[in-house]
TrEMBL record:
Domain of life: Eukaryota
Organism, as annotated: Rostratula benghalensis (greater painted-snipe)
Primary gene name: Fam120b
Record's subunit section: Interacts with ESR1 and RXRA. Interacts with PPARG; in a ligand-independent manner.
Function, in words: Functions as a transactivator of PPARG and ESR1. Functions in adipogenesis through PPARG activation.
Name the UniProt record assigns to this protein: Constitutive coactivator of peroxisome proliferator-activated receptor gamma
Amino acid sequence: MGIKGLQGFVARVCPDACRMVDLREMAEKHRIDHPDFPPVIVVDAMCCVRYWYTPENWVCGGQWKEYLAVLEDFIKAFMAAGIKLVFYFDGVVEEKKRDEWIKRRLQNNKEIARIFQFIKTHRKQPGRGMFVVPSALPTFTRFALKWLGQKTVCTLQEADFEVAACGLEHNCIGILGQDSDYLIYNTCPYFSIEKLRLDRLVTLMYSREDLCRALGLNLTHLPLFACLLGNDVVPESLLEGFWQKCLVSSPHKNTSYNRRANIILAVASYISKLPCSYSSLKHLKGMLPVGSDETLLTRGVQSYLLPGQQSPWIPPNITNCQTFSLQEQTAMCQDKEILQLAKEQHIRSENYTIFNILSSGETECSNSLEDECDTEIPGQALIYRPARQHIYSVLLESGKGGACPLVKEWFVYFGNPLQQPELIHPVQPSVPGGTPNLKTLWFAKGLDVEKQQYSTFLACFHLQDGMEELQALEAPVAAFCCLLAYLMMQVSSLSLEDLNAFLAVILCLKGKSAAQLAGLQLAQVDSRAVHLGAVFIRGLTTLLLANSACGFPFRMDDLMPWVVFDGKLFQEKYQQSHRSCSLEELLEGNDSLYAPFHNLKSFICKACMAKRRTIQSRPRGNGFITGTQQREFHPRFQQTHRSSFVPPYHSQMRGFLWRNTQPQGKK
């Protein structure tokens, strides 16, 4: 979160503390000074994703091929200057930041509601002023960077600490991000992603040394300074009385500055006069409201101490070298070998979410671009919950004493106030021969094990009976069919027209370049298709979770959105399908796609019929949803699989998109 208003204050009041720098020149200087160590910039990727996502369309589910091309250009610009990048992603929401996480998620809900109202009113995407990142963008950015050969790290705690520690330990030329906490950590220089000009590799560099000179402080003051302005540890609500005392006694009041700027100056003036000692910190504790946690300031200062660093404000025996041994002792999974492998894969960004579940039994999912007024489509969190329950069972069934503990979920959806986590019961999937344990799925080798991995994965989505047909397909197509069949089973309002649109996307996407997709123009945007695009993308993250739990029956690369989905293309196919266009128009006149289309459709319809779900034709024409009626909240979402339409296609999968017969590599 950083310190509210600090970077704006630096730009307005301390302009000498931020200046434009040429990263090529800094890299060259680093090579001269350290010839044995290449110049490295450590990137706080979570700060950067909204700046990286530059494709024009952002509401339709994501322009993933375009986005991949943007990331590739970003990497090439630094490679051309001989600069290596290391990307860090938040791997956990720490307990101390949960309240702030919830506050932001509830605010995001309001922003998303306004976006949908705009789309329904104007039938187009809002301007960039209402921009929100496409659903699951940070997750797939992590895998995209790995796809592009970059080193990516998924953290075991909040990313800013690990980013700052990496920058210090490896003598990096700087940190690229957009978080004022990097002005506080005593680490390498801090560069702004917001001000980066990629074509010239110049950006704004913030100098903590120059900030200290302007405020009459030294570097050891900065952690306490941050705490007394309010940060992730010390809430601003406790500091109002202290600020007022500082403002009264401050010699630096300036009527041309706003109140926040004057508070920053007043707090700096106050602490500059204090002796740098633990006794001063104890005195400051007495100025906070009666009854507040006496350890707050100590913990706040401690949170900025990187490995090997100490502070005069706290006793010398207190450092911030955080370890995870206690977490591992109390972990949901007590098998050290399993937990260690999950942890290693987590750090290397090779798996998805499972280390959090195995260690803390807790997981979360942020906002998705879902329409709370569309009463026909449940929240994606509810749609995929049955699959997650099976995945939790695979992960935890061999947990403590054989009993399967509950999983705490913080999932954002309409009707969930996020006041507390939902406690989710794992449910054993119906795997032929029984569910294998994690030791078998993760460590055993051989064709029988590969079959168990694949069948367990399919069982999480209620598709274990379709194994032979799915294995005959190319891996990305098989995974796509698995997700689409599950979606059609779970959501009874989805129609044949919706199914046709999704199938047309994967078939037509294969031959299109990022430039071709960028050139695709939409006459209008349908809000229901926006919603379905977000639901589908969240489904892909559920595939990632299942794949990680089941020992990687698929390569993670085969489950990526740029392989199977494009937001604008889906909008186009959705609108064509609901206008009852011809199959020739839907498949862009490509005769070779007709048989694959019918075969995939046949498989999905038959899989649904086996679960007593027949899919109806329900064309919507140009009947865009415009209603604003509030969705009723059904915490126990139940789908009713009743319909009268019988799918016309019963042809087999043979002959279509055969899987490569060579053994498939796994992560």
